[in-house]
Protein 1
Amino acid sequence: MTFTLYNAPQSTCSQRVRFVLNAKGLPFEEIKLDLLAGDQLKPEYLALNPNGVVPTLDHDGAIVIDSSVIIEYLDEVAPDRERFTPQDPVKRAHMRALMRFIDEMPAAAVRVPTFNLAFLPRFAAMSEEEFLAFAESKPLRKEFMLAMGRTGFPQKEMDAALQRLRRTYERMDAEIEKSGGPWLLGREVSLADIALMPAIVRMADLDQATAWQDLPRVQHWYDAVCRHPAFQPTYYPGSLLTERFPHLRTRA
Ligand SMILES: N[C@@H](CCC(=O)N[C@@H](CS)C(=O)NCC(=O)O)C(=O)O
């Protein structure tokens, strides 16, 4: 089996897929796209992924898109090494329900603090025309970019995103308590944990970890994620925003 992953070092969706490939010990060729330069909007990439986003997986010529779909796909085609999907159908359904929740809540909400705290200086440096053309070119995120504008999301939007993330930490806490932990579904790490990981790592990278300091189960989960053998190869140098954006380092 040969795998080629089109992705970006700091992309949270890409980090899910790298984690699964690394945890399973599957060798893969990594093609890095520069998202701020617009590599994801070039015609040759849009032919692979018409959404104009990363990641995209090429498995022996079969193209699979969307990080949640890709990690489920990898667990199906390479179940041997480490398996992240429970055998029991009820547990499996619970895992999938959590994955839907994660895509709708933290994975979407984390874009607001990411853009406001990290990417904004890039957009503020563009002219209004450049910014509008940049937003127009995005098949999936045009309205998101226009809502943000060159000055960033208003405080109301930022507060709403942080509240959605806070409700996620509370939901994690409740799930871990119910399952007995340390993972969301109990003793075994599952695709739900992997889907959630990059949003939580991102919030820690943005110096926002105090938001779950009253929830020790969530902190233990985060520590377990960071200790997992697939964590370091996934978060290779250049994968964190603090490594790329000096203004974040001075804040932290
Ligand atoms: N649902 C998609 C979302 C992918 C996505 O939003 N990717 C972001 C990086 S995490 C991206 O490529 N953004 C580029 C852009 O917005 O132009 C998935 O999970 O694969």
Note: The pocket of glutathione is lined by residues 11-13, 35, 40, 52-55, 66-68, 138, 141 (CB under 6 Å).
Protein 2
Amino acid sequence: MTPTITAFESSPDRGRGLARDMRVRWALEEAGQPYDVRLVSFAAMKEPAHRTLHPFGQIPTYEEGDLVLFESGAIVFHIAEGHPGLLPDEPNARARAIAWMFAALNTVEPPIFEYSLATILERGEPWYAQRLPLLEGRVRGRLDELSRRLGDADWLDGAFSAGDLLMVSVLLRSKASGKLDDYPTLCAYLVRGEARPAYQRAFAAQLAVFNSQPSPG
Ligand SMILES: N[C@@H](CCC(=O)N[C@@H](CS)C(=O)NCC(=O)O)C(=O)O
């Protein structure tokens, strides 16, 4: 059965791969699973019809027969469980890959996202200049720790896994803000992730949505 995911009709990042449907598209491409995309506007995301799929009125969602999922991590996990190649078969290695999925979403993404949100939404606030170094420090702390752990390895724990897929996805937001420039091993890690054919197909598909729209004015 071909799953359907939802994505932004009009992406705030102009299709640069930061919206969270990107990680779901990437997982589906790694799995070799064709999928359909339903584009939703910001207004439609907050309507009851979309909220039956996603209680928080966001993207991405995932529909496959009777199954409806929200949360990009849960969706990637579901795809990884149903297809070979995204989670190791050996039980301990599989558990560690899942731990990296949680680490990406629960430990590394929050400070990166918080920083990025502040630079967009809090710029005009009188306390912005005071708060920014604190947020930057939290991002740096995580990047320091992650780059130490990755060292010279290609991937976080042996072969590429859904843990890497989510970690690379999360780090891309830091690359966009220039915060990765001091971390050559993390930059190389991202290059490896972005070079994967499945990533490239997913990126092109997401960008095509933006490019198909008439330019404003
Ligand atoms: N934790 C959720 C976050 C989902 C999320 O923040 N989606 C964004 C797009 S990347 C969204 O829909 N933003 C619009 C909004 O919140 O109104 C996930 O990983 O799926």
Note: The pocket of glutathione is lined by residues 19-20, 45, 57-60, 71-73 (CB under 6 Å).
